[in-house]
């Protein structure tokens, strides 16, 4: 039988007494008698790059799917429709439309075209509006300079010749 390293508890973890009194852990996890497992509150995720500060949401350029979602929600609300009404005409579930509007899902071009049609616009018009929104946001956001990289590939071969 393998030996496991001794793990130490890190302050600020889950309170074991309150979790065991609710019965949450015992009901959710099957009993494993073959090997001891470490406690869940002992392990903590380690940041992959602790030396780099995380960018705030406002400081970074938004993703296309986020701007798409905001624009779709704005169009839907301008029409005075519910998620269910718009989703029904587009042929998708209201839950999926909600995730698209929140920027959580990146729908296919066919799905975007169906949503555009359901909202009384075309794919081209919707895409142009999203592009304008992105340009407006990126002009306001601070621009980070690109890191200098040494030349490689065809550029390096041309310099070597």
From TrEMBL:
GO terms for cellular component: cytosol. Residues 26-36 have a biased composition (Low complexity). Residues 72-126 form the HTH cro/C1-type domain. GO terms for molecular function: DNA binding; DNA-binding transcription factor activity. CDD domains: HTH_XRE. Residues 1-62 are annotated as: Disordered. The keyword RNA-binding does not apply. Residues 38-62 have a biased composition (Basic and acidic residues). InterPro entries: Cro/C1-type_HTH, Lambda_DNA-bd_dom_sf, TransReg_Diox_bact_type. Keywords: DNA-binding. It comes from the Bacteria. This is Transcriptional regulator ClgR. It comes from Nocardia cerradoensis. The lineage of its organism: Bacteria, Bacillati, Actinomycetota, Actinomycetes, Mycobacteriales.
């Amino acid at each position: 039988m393998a030996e496991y390293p001794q793990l130490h508890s890190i302050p600020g973890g889950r309170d074991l007494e309150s979790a065991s009194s609710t019965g949450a852990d015992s009901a959710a996890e099957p009993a494993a008698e073959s090997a001891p497992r470490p406690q869940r509150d002992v392990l903590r995720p380690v940041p992959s790059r602790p030396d780099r500060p995380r960018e705030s949401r406002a400081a970074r350029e938004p993703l296309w799917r986020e701007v798409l979602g905001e624009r779709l929600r704005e169009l839907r609300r301008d029409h005075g429709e519910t998620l269910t009404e718009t989703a029904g005409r587009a042929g998708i579930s209201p839950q999926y439309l909600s995730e698209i509007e929140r920027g959580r899902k990146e729908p296919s071009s066919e799905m975007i075209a169906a949503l555009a049609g359901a909202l009384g616009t075309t794919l081209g018009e919707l895409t142009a509006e999203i592009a304008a929104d992105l340009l407006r946001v990126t002009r306001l956001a601070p621009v980070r300079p690109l890191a200098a990289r040494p030349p490689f590939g065809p550029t390096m071969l041309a310099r070597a010749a």
